[in-house]
Amino acid sequence: MKIKRIELASILQFLGNIVINVIGDTTGIFIDNLADSNRINEHSLDWINPTKENKQLMAEESKACVLLVDDTITPIEGKVLIVVKNPKVCLAQIGNHFFVEKPKADIHTTAIVNKDATIGENVYIGPYCVIGKAIIGDGCIIDAHVRIHDCVKMGKGCHVKAGAVLGGEGFGFEKDGEGNRFRFPQIGDLIIGDDVDIGSNTCVDRGALSDTIIGSHTKINNLCHIAHNNVIGENVEITGCVNLSGGNVIEDNVWISPNSSLRGYIHVGKGAIIGTGAVVTKNIPVGEIWVGNPAHKFEKK
Q: Is the separation of the CB atoms in 115 and 132 below 8 Å?
């Protein structure tokens, strides 16, 4: 972590109405890092998990001078308590705003961007990217060596990591009268919502006749394959090395664990969880947990 000197007053101003109460003297206090067990000190910003039974003791024993806490923690001499509803979320928001280094808006000189591409404001396009006649929304970050094809329409605030390929032709073939395979037309689009993350070396194919769709706030990890015509809802988390064959429908808030696969044309209900290494061959109802190969509903014993 890069050490920065941030005045506590600036942090409180940033949090605004999120803060329920501030307990302790904030005069002259600054923060230079977020708490970590290996480097926590008097200038750290720490958070106390509201679910812990010993949270008061944890707060008292923390070496940090400023703590994000819920409203059950009582005052502690020598510490500033920032009372909020969700301490961990606030810590993450502070970290992203003050400590995360983001690239400045720029198109690298080695990037190839089609003259007919639509590039929003405050977009970063890294070295050796190739961008077709795509639409890229405001505030997106496109890391190095990313290929974005003509058919891609990307919302604002997305982050595409190095080596990803978006909007390539899907793997769809038919047989002619002599039994030889030929490509089925892949002429759909790839529609990506706002604040979507797509990991390194992940491939997301365009649709065949209709579109491949990724909903806003969905996060896709590294080394994933999203085939043509998948329709993925909002706030879905797709972890590393997941394979989605074509035509699946995945509703909002689904979690897909590492190394799992969906056969294709599977419907996964809202809030479902797919376990590590699962091979899904049947529809998964809303809110259920499925594991194994072939995947089946997980029953608690």
A: no
Q: Calculate the alpha carbon distances from 156 to 47, 90, 160, 180, 240 in Å.
A: 30, 23, 12, 43, 23
Contact by Cβ (8 Å): 245, 264: yes
**The residue count for the chain:** 301
228 is catalytic: yes
Kindly report the backbone phi and psi dihedral angles of residue 115, in degrees, each rounded to the nearest multiple of 5, phi listed first. -60, -20
44 phi and psi, to 5 degrees?
-85, 155
Identify the band that residue 1 occupies on the pLDDT scale cut at 50, 70 and 90. Answer: low
Angle at 24 between CA 21 and CA 30, to 5 degrees: 100
By the 8 A CB rule, do 84 and 15 touch? yes
What pTM does this model have? 0.92
Q: 88 is written with which tokens?
A: 């961990």
Contacts of 264 (CB under 8 A, 6+ apart): 227, 244, 245, 246, 247, 248
Residue 18 to residue 219: CA distance in whole angstroms: 25
Distances (CA, A) of 169 to 33, 151, 179, 214, 228: 45, 10, 22, 16, 8
pLDDT at 2: 62
Q: Render pLDDT for 64-94 as a digit per residue (tens, 0 to 9).
A: 999 999 999 999 999 999 999 999 999 999 9
Active-site pick, 43, 149, 228, 267: 228
Question: What is the CB-side half-sphere exposure of residue 74 using CA atoms within 13 A?
Answer: 3
- Per-residue pLDDT band for 36 (boundaries 50, 70, 90) equals confident
SS3 22: strand
In this structure, what token pair is assigned to residue 214? Answer: 């990724």
